C-alpha cells in the first residue's frame, strides 16, 4: 500500500506542476464568473444560468483535464524511460497503474475543489444560501472524472496518446448517450438489439452521474440513486483498472 | 509519442482555439458596424430537437439557456421595433419549441415566449406553445391561465378565455382570482348562465368576506341574489 501511495504522491506532484492545468483552471474560473454577466442578459433567469453554466463549465474543464493529462501520463513515463527505473524495483505493474490513477485523481480532486468553491461562493453570494444538492452534484462530477481517468489510463496502456484521447472522448460522448442508443436499439432486429444490449452494459453509463437538471430545479434525489451512482462508479473504475493492469502486465517494452 | 510532439499538439489546439475566438470577435465587430446583411443579422440555426438531444451529452439545459439568450437578444429587438414591417418573428417559435423540448421545466421560456409571439401577431404559434406546455405539465395552472390571458387580450375570445381560466382555477396552487376571471369572461361573452353558475360557485366556495362580496356584487349585476 505504501508503494502505491508513494507512486500516487509522485504522480500528484508531477501533474500539479503541469502548466496547462493552470491555464484550464483560469479558463474555468473565468467561465464561472461570466455567469454573472450572462445572467443579466436573461429575464429573471440569472440563478438558472449560474447553476447551468457553472456546473457545465466545471464538468467540461474537468473532463478536458482528465482526458488530456490521463492519456499522456503513461506515455510520458515510457517516453522518458522513467518507467523502467520504477519497474526494476519490487513494484508490480498494476500497483504502478493504481498509483498513477490515485495521483491524477488527487490532482483532479483539488482542481474540482477550487472550481467548486468558486461556484458555490457565487451561488451563496447570489442566493444567501447553499443547497446540499449542489455539493452532491460536484461529487457526482468527481465520480465521473474518476471513471474517465480510468478509461484514459486503460486506453493508454495499448495505444498512442492521440488515439487514447480520441477514444476516451468518444467513450465520454457515448457514455452520455447510452440510454438513447439503448432505447433506439429496442426498435431494431433481435441481433442488433442483442449487440446494443451488450454494448449498453459494457460501456460506461455516464448519465448515472448527471444530476445537474435535478439540482437546477431543486428536485429530490432518492438516497438509493446516490448510492447506486457511487457503487457503479467505484466498480466500473475498479474493473477498468483491473483490465488496464492485465494489459500492462503483458506489455513488452 | 514524444513529449515534444505532445506539447506541439497542445500548442496547435490552443492556436486553433485562439483563432476561433479571433474569428468570432471579428464577426461581432463586423455586425456592430452593420457590415452584415440584415437577414444574416437576425437569422441563426435552429436544429431539430432529435439531433440536438442526441449530441447534447446531458448538456440539454445549457443548450436551452443559450437559445433562450439568443431568443431574447434577437426577438427583444423585434418587440421594441416600431415599424411592423421590420419585425421578424420567423425563428421565434422554432427556437421556443426547441428550448421547451430540451428543458421541459423552463416554464418562463414558454410563458414569456407566448407573450412575445402574440405581440408579434403570431397568436396561433403562441397558442401552440402553451398547448405544448399544457400537454407536458397538465397539473401546472400557469399554462391554462396564460392561454386564458392570450384569448382575452389578443383574440378577444371571451368564452375560450373563460374556459381556460376555469380550467386553471381547478389546478393546484391556482390564484383565487382565476375563477373570478372565468366568471367575468363568461359575462363579457354574453354567456349569462355560465357566468351566474361560476359566480355562484365562487360565492359558495369563498371562505373570505372580500371574495364573497365581489361574487355577490357580480351576481346582483347579473340579476341574481345569492342565498
Question: Which helices and strands occur, and which strands form pairs?
Answer:
The complex is a heterodimer of chains A (253) and B (227).
Chain A: H1 2-16, H2 19-39, H3 46-79, H4 82-87, H5 93-127, H6 132-156, H7 161-185, H8 190-202, H9 212-216, H10 223-250
Helix pairs in contact in A: 1-5, 2-3, 2-5, 3-5, 3-6, 3-7, 5-6, 5-10, 6-7, 6-10, 7-8
Chain B: H1 3-32, H2 38-42, H3 49-55, H4 60-80, H5 92-102, H6 107-119, H7 123-136, H8 142-155, H9 158-169, H10 177-188, H11 192-205, H12 209-221
Helix pairs in contact in B: 4-5, 5-6, 5-7, 6-7, 6-8, 7-8, 8-9, 9-10, 10-11, 11-12
Summarize the structure in short.
The complex is a heterodimer of chains A (253) and B (227). Chain A is mainly alpha-helical.
Helix content of chain B: over 70%
The total of beta strands of chain A comes to 0
Fraction of residues of chain A in helices? over 70%
Rg of chain A: 20 Å
What labels would you give this structure?
heterodimer, A: 253 residues, mainly alpha, B: 227 residues, 2 domains, elongated
Structure description:
The complex is a heterodimer of chains A (253) and B (227). Chain A starts with a helix and ends with a helix. Chain A is mainly alpha-helical and 253 residues long. The model of chain A has no long low-confidence stretch (mean pLDDT 89). In chain A, helix 3 (46-79) packs parallel to helix 6. Chain A has helices at 2-16, 19-39, 46-79, 82-87, 93-127, 132-156, 161-185, 190-202, 212-216, 223-250. Chain B has 227 residues and is mainly α. Chain B folds into 2 domains: 27-32 and 41-137; 159-227. Chain B has helices spanning 3-32, 38-42, 49-55, 60-80, 92-102, 107-119, 123-136, 142-155, 158-169, 177-188, 192-205, 209-221. In chain B, helix 4 (60-80) packs antiparallel against helix 5 (92-102), helix 7 (123-136) packs antiparallel against helix 8 and helix 11 (192-205) runs antiparallel to helix 12 (209-221). Chain B is elongated, with a radius of gyration of 25 Å. Chain B starts with a helix and ends in a 6-residue tail after the last helix. The model of chain B has no long low-confidence stretch (mean pLDDT 82). Chain A binds chain B through residues 20, 23, 38, 41-45, 48-49, 52-53, 56, 68, 72, 75-76, 79-80, 160-162, 172-173, 176-177, 180, 206-207, 210, 212-213, 216-217, and chain B through 1-3, 6, 9-10, 14, 53-54, 57-62, 65, 68-69, 72-73, 103, 105-106, 108, 112.
